[in-house]
Amino acid sequence: MDYPTTAKPRYDLLDGLRGVAALMVILYHVGEGFATSSRDQVINHGYLAVDFFFVLSGFVIGYAYDGRWQRGMSTANFILRRIIRLQPMVVIGVLLGVLSFVIQGCEHWDHTPVSTPAVILSLICGLFLIPALPGTAPEVRGNGEMFPLNGPSWSLFFEYIGSLFYAFFLHRLSTRALTLFVVASGIVLAAIALGNGSGDFHLGVGWTAANGGFWMGLARMTFSFSAGLLLSRRFRPARIRGAFWLCSALIVAVLSVPFIGGETCPIANAGYDALCTLLVFPLIVYLGASGITTDRWSQHTCSFLGAISYPVYIIHYPFMYLFYAWVWNNNITFSQAWPVAGGIIVTVITLAWLLLRYYDEPVRRWLTARFIK
Predict the structure, then answer these.
(1) Is the overall model pTM greater than 0.70, yes or no?
(2) What's phi and psi for 332, nearest 5 deg?
(3) Domain around 278
(4) Number of domains, the chain
(5) Which DSSP state fits 4?
């Protein structure tokens, strides 16, 4: 997370909860390899972890930066800080993505060959977080992803938009005006969910620009980020015992709920997604920010999970591309695949820690010393 370098305390519990949600995303994506639709997915609501990340990001950015504008922080300085925080691992994620794509033979999911210039163009777009439109040359996998070399980059793309939105607009709003903005954006998001914007009564949108996906992804970020920012301004902590374990259990439970309503009432699932995004995730962030780590085990757990959360999230999907190809091309069942899936999870966590320790942190320290005054 992006905390200030002043004496403000860290929210260690929120770091840990981000890690819990990141690990749930990996499990969700493992389950995608065996799902036949969005309704029979293991960890069925794992896509909602992104909305939790956005709420968390808005809260922490508000906590870290809201007071700095009055002390003379410039918009350029803030944006540069966000680039230094996010971009080094974005680069690694895309490089791992192009490596996995080459290993797969540089072809669409339907095995149509992809030209080398198209792969290079996709790599350049990925490095600079330029989204690919469906059917264009950079969209090399042929399934509509905005960032086909590393799918989860779509949420980082919107994270950057949220940071720009904060720098140019949101931080200027009074708390009352921000409250009205959050309410309005929440109404829009609820309308997207209940109006079946996704086409299958869920909020797992934003990863593709097709069928209005870009605008729905923007709506997800706009509400959740601004809600987190509002929460940081209005935050008055309570005394919550065992907050980390309580909030971790809530995250796991919320993301693991099966598709609700079935064929007879699928709008119930859309209502569940809206409820989680509009109310449950801000509540979890509030509870997490209200708790403290009171023992060494909890402190170390939160510290480790928080440290690896972003690297794990941004590097895991290239491994998933290879995993999916192996499963689908060989008709592998879950009972056959789970040892490999477990090995991938361990590999991703280990690699995330190594990249954090020997690449991300040193690069960010150097960039900060070189460019941040």
Answers:
(1) yes
(2) -80, 135
(3) 12-364
(4) 1
(5) -
